[in-house]
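Consortium newsletter contribution from the modelling node. Members have asked for a concrete example of what our holo predictions look like. Here is one, prepared for the iron/sulfur cluster complex that several groups have been discussing at recent meetings.
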Amino acid sequence: MITLTVDDREVQVQPGTLIIDAAKAVGIEIPVFCYHPRMDPAAACRMCLVRVEKMPKLMPACATPVSEGMVVHTDTDEVQKAHAGVLEFLLANHPLDCPICDKGGECELQDNSIAYGPRATRFADSKRHLDKARALGPIVELDQERCIQCTRCIRFMDEVAGDPVLTVHDRGGHAVIDTAENRTFDSIFSGNTIEICPVGALTSRPFRFKARPWDLDEVDSVCPHCPVGCNIKLSVRHGEVKRILSRDSEEIDWGWICDRGRFGYGFLKHGERLEQPMLRKDGKLAPVSWDEAVSVLRERMQGNSGALGGGRHSLEAAYLLRRFLDQVGTKNVDHRVLPLYSAIAPGPVGRIDDVNDADLLISLDVELLEEAPVLALRMREFQRKRGLRIVSVSPRRGLLDMPHQEAQTPDVAATLRAIAQGEGDIGQEFLAAQKVLLLWNGRSEDVFSAIGAAVAARSGETATLVAGSLANSFGAQAAGLLPKDGGLDARGMLEAAAAGQLDALLVIGHDILSEFPDAELAAQAIEKVPFLAVAGTVPSETTGRADLVLPLAAWAESDGHFVNMEGRAQPYAAGSDRSPQLVDDWELMARLLGIAPDYEAILAEVQSALAPLFAAERRQGAEAPEGGYRPVPGAAIAGASIYYKGVTPDPFLNSIVPQTRVAVAPDVAEAAGAAEDDEVEVSGLRAALHVDPDLPPGAVLVRAGQEGANHALTRAAEVRALARRSE
Amino acid sequence: MNAERLAKARELLEAFPQKSSALIPILHLVEEEFGWIPEEEVAVVADLMGYTPAYVESVLSFYTLFHRQPTGKYLIQVCRGLSCQVRGADELSKFLYEELGVQRSGTTEDGMFTVEAVECIALCKDAPAVQINLEFYPDMTPEKMQAFLDKARQEVPSDA
Amino acid sequence: MPETRILFKHIDVPGIDRIDVYEQHGGYQSLRKAVLDMTPESVAQEVMTSNLRGRGGAGFPTGRKWSFLPKDGRTRYLVCNADESEPGTCKDQELIYKNPHLLIEGVAASAYAIGAEDAFIYLRGEFKVGYAILERAIAEARAKGYVGDDVLGSGRRIEITLYLGAGAYICGEETALLNSLEGKRGQPRLKPPFPATAGLYGMPTVVNNVETLAAVVPILEMGGAEYSKLGSEKSAGTKLFSVSGTVRNPGNFEVELNKVTLRELVYDLAGGPLEGREIKGIIPGGSSVPILTPDKFDVALDYESLAAAGTMLGSGGVIVLDDHSCIVKSTLRLMEFYRHESCGFCTPCREGTMWLDQVLERIEAGLGRPGDLEMLADLCVNIEGRTFCPLGDAAIGVLKSGLELYHEEYQAHIDQGCCPLGEVVR
Ligand SMILES: Cc1cc2nc3c(=O)[nH]c(=O)nc-3n(C[C@H](O)[C@H](O)[C@H](O)COP(=O)(O)O)c2cc1C
Ligand code: SF4
Ligand code: FES
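And here is the predicted structure:
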């Protein structure tokens, strides 16, 4: 520990701590612009200058490490003059458009000016004139005049996202942030730059001019889109979510979120929503009361019934659904509607923080940016800082966007078993490493058992994480939304339904017709099942075919918990108003169960029944579940997609989603006589072709959630050229 | 780039302990061939280096010897450093602007001459100094400048 | 007062740029001695003993700089700073263009001393012809075994690679230079780490000026102890001064430090003022250092004396202004330069130079306002010592001193709405 003095206060900190952080430790704020606690210092803005005794010049607190016996002054006349001087310089060329600036009210330049600025500017010459509305990409717009050249955005893209798409052009007073004409700012992390821009230079096209920061209430929430569980804040005005911001969590997201998380809220008020319970009477869906809807469903579920879903809804709902199914005595339940075998791997469950000190991370067929984007940022950070070793075992190459070793293999499970037996360099490394993190996409039973063997083979610490599931898949699985004692899994239920052997089917939060990886089976099942109930937030093909439609509040309109990939239950609170006919997901389950929809009581029960999900300790891994996703040989590979995952009803995100594409290995393209960008058909899926040399020979890849994608997953993938776009 | 320069560029990729160092020398090759750096060539260089064009743009825009507009056959750079300025740099530039009919920094319509006022070129003791296509012309006067222009015009008729 | 020509001893010998002529004049004897008769440590020790200080501007003792290299077995690099962009400075240019082998010999001997196999010479982009001259000279030296895989049969590899910048004053700053040499934007780097521990490609690196490295040749020739007897204890050796501006005989002059005054340099060696003119101020160390008025002209030319006079020796670029030179116009010209050359990375430099330039432009155009001068002075305070790299300090060197020393001339521009010196001025 190092002892120093800041403004006459003694501070003890770790060696290597920067003055700015040492000062903060004793509550002394030093103003900054370019400094960001999650990025390397730049010392560019010179706002944080302080006096350090025995140093000839004022020192930037953001870039000066402490030393023993250092004496720092942050508030002398000289330092105050320096602060005011830098602000005066920054304001000299800053436009005076605060009244119409999105950042007004939460602008660091405004705040620092009020606290540290000169009383008046002496600048009376002409200001710089630059582009006021430069679209950098589909989401981010730059006002070059407002930019103060702090380079936070550039450093974020370079250091954190590892995608240096932003650069400085020109130099001196002409220096501007830009991308070249031929590259747009299309990173899935682009929104973070808007949030960390200290001024209103970077704005989001969806949020621009929508509300003033001081009119917004902030509600803590958790992102509902993937199993990472980034912590977020809903900015709400008049009951409407106006934007989503990050909420820095030390253990999970470090203050970053992906653009789906940041912008996937428009559907709440501006998409099509299910509005009221509907019951099919005389062949037509007609509004009914909730009492009637609940009693019809409860009665229908008494027979030979089954339930599908749970990964998109709250832990509370999953838990109560399990209780309800026990009450009515059905063993047929499965949350694994999308391609998933298990949301929990064997072995001790990993923590995202394990990337901080693991020696080796083996990624088992995980397409990281699509399945767990912010985890990629954390991995990169520790790879950059301390060279975390990463190996990707997959039939496909190029799944990770950071330096790593590729172990391409047609059989991931077999390769993992070989590694566990110490075969090859990776095997040796695997056995010798102090701490190994296994990251898996959760898709196949073989790999599940190979992971079990691998964990057992090691004497050192090993932990496992499953990407490739939904926001609450872990919770759904932990709450028991899996077939038990010979109950049917998702496919089994649909097969039974199609064979006329199931009386009622309840689907929660899924459009099985477009999502279940066998569209034909899903269609037959729906055709045959005497009673189909669908609970969810948005209309879909499946709700159109339902006998009972149960409209639920979306996550932003409800209180609840999601359990992320680490098995960590995280609370979210309702921020948005909702239409009066909507109910919370757990409320529906409580009513089915016949208990009072008292959230506090329900939560207390969940917390005690599923205590490990709320505990500080590491969770335990899973036993092998029954059933689950079984890939069809010869069919397309199920790819994930951050923008496509499940239903993407968000109007804004839909407008920026890249065009539907199916990726094929070069030999497949050649056999079909098709080239890049040609229009093709793959088992009913029509899309543009992408020839991907990283795919193994013969492979066809379709991404979840595309129209027709689930067909391609269940039939031998035949690629037929339709139209040539390339010439 | 022409084949010869492209081959040279490929050699440059190997000429330094790290490949990144080849970028500026390769850009010099482009500037040498075209007299400026056209957009398409940025893509060529990016491709050679394994960079995005954005990155190449960002680097080259830092340096004033890389032009983003075509320059004339003769790039006349008049030093306006203080030492040249107190010895008549302004008069020299003014003479050139008038004689060639260009504004501050401009190219004649026939594409023969580009005039630029540049910062100190390390020829202070020979002020006022000029460099033409990066060759130094010390102790310049309007008369010497005139003689140079006349000779250049004679050598290459402007309609050629 | 004569020059003391050591570096410039053979500068005017016809054909000295060819290796045989250079060798006839004793060339490559120092390198031969170093590589064949001395250990790298003893060569470095001679440089330490010589008390040579860096000639690039900061005047840091060269032997000490070399001693900072960590002894950890990592690859080391030597980089010669031939960016010479400081207005008023043209000494490296003459040396490179006329006597390239002296530089090559100095670079090779220094690379040997610090244990670098690869040395780079970073030339400013305008030195394209100088690049060709050095290229040919290196080929000559290679043919004779002075550079290459096995220098003079010693088993030591010393390669010299040339690199041409592309127009950016800031690339003279050593860390910006390293970025530029790595193919990046020429932005200065955060220090520490200093180049000695993490320089070119992250490896331990020494950056020295052309004149500094050239001086290693006579140091080895005469011995460090002998060299240190030239000049004074703290300012040893000879130094090249470029005298430019309004003097009769501008040029580069090599004088013993501490033995010649500024007046002698300018009035005797450089011929004094132009016909009928009077010198009113001298900027003694390149455009970045405070200006001196005639009452200070008798200052001895050495690091300490110039510092005591409130200015700096800097790069040795002596710019002379006379009674036909308008101080406002001169400082405006310099501020335009610094504004143009600011890399734009840090606030005070980017915004400060732009602001100062605009105000000076206004005053020069006769549109100065009351309070402008006080504001200029205060803006200088807000820049000085606050910028990321020393360019900020450089930018205000002349202006800050000029505002004090020539206050009346500035004030007259504001009061009269025009230049008080009339039409003849530049
Ligand atoms: C803005 C700026 C410009 C500089 N320009 C040059 C230059 O053109 N040539 C040079 O040798 N040193 C220049 N320097 C000094 C170098 O940073 C460095 O100190 C020098 O190359 C070290 O060599 P020396 O120890 O031999 O003097 C400059 C420094 C600054 C801050
Ligand atoms: S756009 Fe914002 S974040 Fe980027 S450099 Fe400018 S002020 Fe900083
Ligand atoms: S916050 Fe320290 S220099 Fe910007």
